[in-house]
Amino acid sequence: MPSVYIKTYGCQMNERDSEQVASQLVAKGYSLAPSEAMADVILLNTCSVRDAAEQKALNKMENIAAETRRSRPDVVLGFMGCMAQSRGRELIDRLPDVDLVIGTQKFHHAPDYLDDILAGRRKRIVDVAEEAGSQSTIRDHLLNGNGHKAVSAFVSIMQGCNQYCTFCIVPYTRGAERSRPIEDIVAECRELAARGVKEVTLLGQIVTSYGKREIGMKDGKSAFVQLLEAVHEIDGLERIRFTSPHPKGYGDDLVQAYSRLPKLVESAHIPVQSGSDRMLKAMHRGYTRKRFVSIIEKLREVNPRMGVTTDIIVGFPGEAEADFEETLSLAREAQFDNAFIFKYSPRRDTPAAILPDQLPQEIKEERNARLLQLVNEIGARKYRACVGQRVQILAEGPSRKNPARMMGRTRSNKIVVFDGSERHRGQIMDVNVTRAGSFTLYGDPAIINLD
Ligand code: SAM
């Protein structure tokens, strides 16, 4: 059987989609190649959120095509995901060596399409159509892809986005919001727990919009909170996370869920995008700075250890120095544990791309650097404050930077590196934090288990 190499760009949803394709291919007998040089099929799962991500994937495919067409002309090349969705056939016009283009509602067809191409039944396939029910097709897992059992898994609960932020391409690449039924998600999580998974991260573009149309409110609880409650019941699951919520959907029912549901860890990644109400309005975000700050205050009241992270865009069209200073002051006020900063990138078909007053790259770079410095200072202080504390971690496996050591995450989503071994994998354990590095903690297991 052929071997496949999948390279993933972008967010956790893309990682999850790649895992779906990989697990279906493995079930058919394909093997997973460790690198593109060894693969019979090379798939790039793409991201469109910023132009840089698109250019990276395009350049990568150009290089792969040049290389493989010379030495291994039978290798099948494909684009999947968001850029495949937004550019479709245009990708083949630009890169004629590409055999397959699969949109965001069509991942589950990848194995059949590859069979057809490999068997010579079809030469080229482009499928970027909508497909009813496609939100329920991202449900298979590859839990021991690297020879070890995974202890943490992503679970896709919905697809699409209805928010239409003026900067964002996602509603055009992922379609309208469509949610999976609670029972299907619970069944998937239950099976994961039976296979040894201790932690699930529920995924959606805006998880707080989960089931709004299909399920609705019940006893004052949103469909998303109902889902959290149902997943919380599963024996063997120890931790629940989710990403990303929208501040608009962060109601008191969700805030209170943190105190009622002990498996819901004290961590919240809430994209704010700007500290300026003028910019939030122009971005069509649907909340004010005050509302955002009040959510964080409530979360920290529920649990003072709450880890709060965010996404921020700098250099949105028309962002004046005063608006940017509002963002700096929000970062100081909110005291984020970490923030992902993005330089605004005009995206095709989005309203912001044609706004007057697009800012020059130098201003975006300069604001990015200033905000990054502040975020790093605040983050460093917060991480230093953990030194001397005992924290609970879930040990995930070897540290990526130093595979001789193990790593886990605190409930508030901070990475902790410690001296340990494979026997720690999957354990919930207490660690004494001895040192803080750059967005990493170092610690010693609180109880030395000599078994
Ligand atoms: N759905 C989430 C939300 O907005 O609440 C975030 C999803 S998006 C994949 C991740 C981040 O990319 C966004 O939060 C935003 O900060 C950033 N982003 C989206 N569009 C962008 C653009 N045109 N330019 C720069 N950054 C962008």
Describe the structure.
The strands form 5 sheets. Strands 2-1-3-4-5-6 form a 6-stranded parallel β-sheet, with helices on both faces. Strands 15-16-17-19-18 form a 5-stranded mixed beta barrel. It has a 3-stranded parallel β-sheet with strand order 7-10-11, with helices on both faces. The longest helix is centred in the last third of the chain and has 24 residues, at 361-384. The protein is 34% helix and 21% strand. With 451 residues, the chain is α/β, with parallel strands linked by helices. The model has no long low-confidence stretch (mean pLDDT 96).
**Principal-axes shape call:** globular
Structural class: alpha/beta
Count every beta strand, where a strand is a DSSP E run of 2 or more residues: 19
Q: C-alpha Rg, in Å?
A: 22 Å
Task: Give the cofactors and ligands.
Answer: S-adenosylmethionine
State the separation between the terminal residues, measured CA to CA. Answer: 42 Å
Share of residues in helices: 25-40%
Q: Numbering strands along the chain, what is their spatial order in the largest sheet?
A: 2-1-3-4-5-6
Q: Could you tell me the strand content as a percent range?
A: 15-25%
Oligomeric state of this protein:
single chain
Number of helical regions: 13
| Major pleated sheet | 6 strands, parallel
What's the overall average pLDDT, rounded? Answer: 96
Q: Unreliable segments (pLDDT under 50, ≥5 consecutive)?
A: none
